[in-house]
Write a structure and sequence with these properties.
With 321 residues, the protein is an alpha/beta fold. It contains eight helices and eight strands, in the order E-H-E-H-E-H-E-H-E-H-E-H-H-E-E-H. The protein has one domain (20-314): Rossmann fold. An eight-stranded mixed sheet has the order 3-2-1-4-5-6-7-8, sandwiched between helices. The radius of gyration is 18 Å and the shape is globular.
Length: 321
């Protein structure tokens, strides 16, 4: 059963650190995959899960960069994965399934943000293709291992950017709409949230629960396509480069992912959008605040329509029960 979209008063909050968000849970014997788990909040997520005893695989497009970041962290493995490349996704998942039969935690963390118009080999717009479709295909390929875990959790990284717009199911690749990098990002992040809704509806019967996460504002490599002047104009940094006090540290940004992935407070729950280590408040479509989730990002009917589109665009379906 889908959990109500309402806070549970977890006792955690904006400044909770990643390891604190575990709630003391021992993850020995658990297996986790964290896409982008070698940089920014992904690295802090990897550290928290591995520090609690889980074996963590941190797939990356840049093997050299990942190896340097992960070299001194116990219980962590590195593998090649490019979420914009269908063959790479299948190769990674196939390799994982050949060695491991269960997957307890999947955190779909990797993303690009506000990039110039780019397209993958299929002609798909890069933010939607990488942030959503790549993770859709990856999760589908890993589905047998998630079901075999007997209580797996999948975390889909969304963003406050979901407030910009819902996904455009009629023109997902900006073939008829003039490209706008922030509109593309908002659509992709809404898709990430809706994927969690759709996955939880299909996975709950198998013990697989899914959560969407807004990690908060954090300065990481995610801003690589944004010039300093743009970040300053948006109020993210001042003229001296000082970061806005609303922003979190990478560890604080990873906390909600870790909370959704492992904390016992969410046992038996799923299909909700979370922020600041709690289930977020549902807000009206015209809300002007900095917290809460807008209606289109938790719309079950829209989630089903996106699911069908994602199957058509990827050619991938989740294996039957």
């Amino acid at each position: 059963m889908r959990t109500p979209q309402a806070p549970i008063n977890s006792g955690y909050g904006l400044r909770t650190e990643a390891r604190e968000a575990l709630g003391g849970r021992d993850l020995a014997g658990k297996v986790a995959i964290v896409t982008g788990g070698y940089s920014g909040i992904g690295l802090e997520t990897t550290k928290a899960l591995a520090g609690a005893g889980a074996i963590v695989i941190a797939p990356a497009r840049s093997a050299e960069k990942a190896q340097k970041a992960l070299v001194n962290i116990a219980n962590v493995e590195q593998a090649a994965l490019d979420l914009a490349d269908c063959a790479s996704i299948d190769a990674f998942a196939g390799g994982f399934l050949s060695r491991t039969k269960k997957l307890d935690i999947l955190i779909n963390n990797a993303a690009i943000m506000a990039s110039p118009l780019m397209r993958d080999a299929r002609g798909y717009e890069a933010q939607f293709a990488t942030n959503h479709l790549g993770h859709f295909q990856l999760t589908a390929r890993l589905w047998p291992a998630l079901k075999a875990a007997g209580g797996a959790r999948v975390v889909s990284l969304s963003s406050i950017g979901h407030r910009i717009a819902p996904p455009d199911l009629d023109d997902p690749n900006f073939e008829r709409t003039e490209y706008n990098k922030w509109l593309a990002y908002g659509r992709a992040k809404s898709a990430n949230a809706l994927f969690a809704i759709g996955l939880d509806a299909r996975g709950a019967a198998h013990g697989v629960r899914a959560f969407a996460v807004h990690p908060g504002g954090i300065m990481t490599d995610l801003q690589r396509y944004m010039p300093r002047e743009e970040q300053q104009a948006m109020g993210w940094i001042d003229e001296h480069g000082n970061v806005n006090e609303r922003f979190k540290t990478p560890s604080q940004g990873a906390a909600t992912s870790v909370w959704c992935a492992a904390n016992a407070q969410l046992d038996g729950k799923g299909g909700v959008y979370c922020e600041d280590c709690d289930i977020a408040v549902a807000v009206p479509p015209d809300d002007k605040g900095f917290s809460g989730v807008r209606p289109w990002a938790i719309d079950a009917e829209l989630a089903d329509r996106l699911w069908a589109l994602s199957e058509r665009m990827t050619g991938v379906r989740f294996a039957a029960a």
